[in-house]
Design a protein that fits this description.
By secondary structure, the protein is an alpha+beta fold. The protein has one domain: RNA polymerase II/Efflux pump adaptor protein, barrel-sandwich hybrid domain (OB fold (Dihydrolipoamide Acetyltransferase, E2P)), CATH 2.40.50. 20% of the residues lie in helices and 35% in strands. The protein has four helices and nine strands; from the N terminus they run E-E-E-H-E-E-E-E-E-H-H-E-H. Strand 2 and strand 3 form a beta hairpin. It is globular and about 35 Å long. The N and C termini lie close together (9 Å). The mean pLDDT is 96.
Length: 125
């Protein structure tokens, strides 16, 4: 399983790439492997606001539908339309195929997330 340095990770296998007061959010390699071949992705509309722990979206595969939980408070400012058009991109490159870009409400929440090393330990790597 690939784990990238410089990102933050949640226990729910979501990654965040922080840029200023915004964060790109996607699912990890472990998550995409667990879900299987993704056939459909449901994501929120731009301007939707979330609280940490809310369901951000749903990934559907032949195996199951899996909720994606947002690990921080924020407002969606952009949705990755490329993955809506071709959900398999999340399987082939989960770290380039972000789901949404959010404006962080409370950047200090990022401190509660795991570093790459901590996430590897969670995975037993």
């Amino acid at each position: 399983m690939k784990v990238l340095e410089g990102l933050y990770y949640s226990k729910d296998h979501v990654w965040l790439k922080i840029e200023g007061n915004k964060a790109y959010i996607g699912i990890t390699d472990y998550a995409q492997d667990s879900v299987g071949d993704i056939e459909y992705i449901e994501l929120p509309e731009v301007e939707t606001e979330f609280t940490a722990g809310d369901v951000l979206g749903v990934l559907e595969s032949a195996k199951a539908a899996s909720d994606v939980y947002i690990p921080v408070d924020g407002k969606v400012v952009e949705v990755n339309n490329n993955i809506l058009d071709d959900p398999s991109l999340v399987n082939s490159d989960p770290y380039d195929s972000w789901l949404v870009l959010v404006e962080l409400k409370n950047k200090s929440q990022v401190e509660n997330l795991m570093t790459a090393e901590e996430y590897k330990k969670l995975l037993g790597k």
